[in-house]
From TrEMBL:
Extent of Polar residues compositional bias: 1-19
Natural source organism: Trametes cubensis
Topology in membrane: Multi-pass membrane protein
Main location: membrane
Entries under PROSITE patterns matching the protein: MFS, SUGAR_TRANSPORT_1, SUGAR_TRANSPORT_2
Keywords: Membrane, Transmembrane, Transmembrane helix
Protein name as annotated: Major facilitator superfamily (MFS) profile domain-containing protein
TM annotation in the entry: 50-68, 159-179, 185-206, 278-304, 316-336, 343-362, 382-399, 404-422
Compartments it resides in: Membrane
GO MF annotation: an example: carbohydrate:proton symporter activity
Amino acid sequence: MSRTSYSPHVSDDAASNTSRRSKTREDVVVNSSDFDAEVVASAPRLSGPALTAAIAFVAGTGFTLFGYDQGVMSALLTAKQFENVFPQVAIPKDGSGNHATLQSFVVAIYTASYSYAQLVVARIITGLGNGLNTSTVPSYHAECSPAARRGSLIMIEGSLITFGIMISYWIDFAFFWISGSTAQWRVPIALQIVLALIMIVGISFLPESPRWLAKHGRDAEALAVISALDDKPHTDAGVQQTYHGIREAIAAESHHGNDSSPLREVFTNGRSQNFRRAFLGVVVQCFQQITGINLITYYATLLFERLGIDDVKARIIAAANGTEYFLASLIAIALIDRIGRRPLMLFGAIGQTITMVLLAPAEIVGLRIRAPANAFSTASNWTFNFMVVMVTGPAFNNISWRTYIVFASLNAFIIPIVYLFFPETAGRSLEDMDVVFALAYNEGVSPVKVSLRKDIPPAGSPEADEILGISGRDGSVREDASRSEKAS
C-alpha cells in the first residue's frame, strides 16, 4: 500500500485544492477499503487508558533507572567495603592527595568490579546504556502523549527520577549494615538490572510512536496508533486532525530541506528555526546540571559526614532528603498544565525545584530533527553532569563553602535566560510548536511572545499550512510541498 493511498493525498486538480481549503476534519475520509483493513490489522495490542498507562509505566521505569543510577553511589563512596576494594577513592581525613579527584571520577564515570580500572570500564558501559535511555525515552513518551496531558504525564517521569534517587538512598542504607561483605555495595548497584529487565520486556508490548511511523512511510500503523492512543476509531475527526497535523509537519520539514540529513538540519534556521530550538534543548539540560542539584544527589552522604555527622545519621538524613526531593516533585505534576512550563522553570531556578526541565527538549524541536536534537540535549545533560561531579570534590577541598556560592550564582543566571528565551509549550501539540516558531520567523519576533498568544492556529489547519509555507493564501498547495508528499 503506497503512502499516497490515504489522505492527505495532494492532487493537482481544483477540487482537491477546494477540499484542502475547507479542510474540516469531518470531511476527511479514508479513500481505500484496503487501507481501512490495513489500519485495523495494524492496531496495537493495547488501546486507550491501558496503552497510555503501559507507555507511562515503561517510560517511567527508564527514568526510575536513571534516578537510581544517579543516587546509588552517594552512600557507597564512604561504605567500608567499597573503600576496602577501591582505596584510591577513600579521602584521607586531612584531605591531602588526589583522592577527591579520583572519587569524583568514579562517580562521573562502576560495579561487579575488583579493581579500579574495571570499575571505570563498567561505569562507562552502564553510562552508554543510560545515555541511550535518557536520549530516547523522553522523545518517545512526548510523541505518544496528548497535548492536554503531555506535561503532567512527562512530569510524572521527572518525579520518577527522584523516586529512583530516593529508593537508591534507602537501599544503600539497608545494605550499609552488611559491613562484613562486599554485598554492602555490589547488591545496591546490581539491583539496577531489575529495572532494565522490566524495560526490555515491557517495550515489546508497545507500538512505535505515530510520528516516527508516519515519517517512515508506515501510514496505516501511524493512524492505528493514534486511534489506539485516543481510544477512538480511525475515522474520528480528532484522530484525523492529529494525523493530518503530523503529515503536514513532515511535508513542511521535508520541502524546506529535503536533501539534508536531520543532523545537518539541526544547524539551520529559516522558518523551522531548527538550530534555535535544538540550542534551547541543549541549554535547558545544561541548566539542569549547573543548578548544583547533583552536588547533593551524588554526594549527600559525604557532605553530611563532612559536617561531623556520624555514618548512620548521615545516611538517614540523605535518605530523608531524597524522600523530600521525591515528594516535592509531585507538586509540579498538578501545576504543569495549569500554569505552564515557563513559570515553573522560573520558580525552579529560584527554588531549585528542577524536575520539570527534562520535558522541554522533547517538546520544542521539530519532528525531522527531534532525534539528533534530543541526542545533543542529552549529551549536554551528561557533559555538564560530568563537569559538576568532577569539580565537586576538588572544589570542596580548595574553596570549601564557597562552592555553594558558585552554584547560587549560576542559579541566578538561569532566571533571566528562561524568561527571555524559552517559549511556553503548555496545551500545544508537538506540531503546534512548529507553527509557533514559523510564525515568529515570518513576523520577525521572538518565539516567546508568539507562544504566549491565544490566536495561533492549530497544526493541520489551512492557516497553519500557510504559516508553515506548505500552502498559498488561496488554499492551494505549494508546488514544492506537493512534490514532497507525492515523492513520499
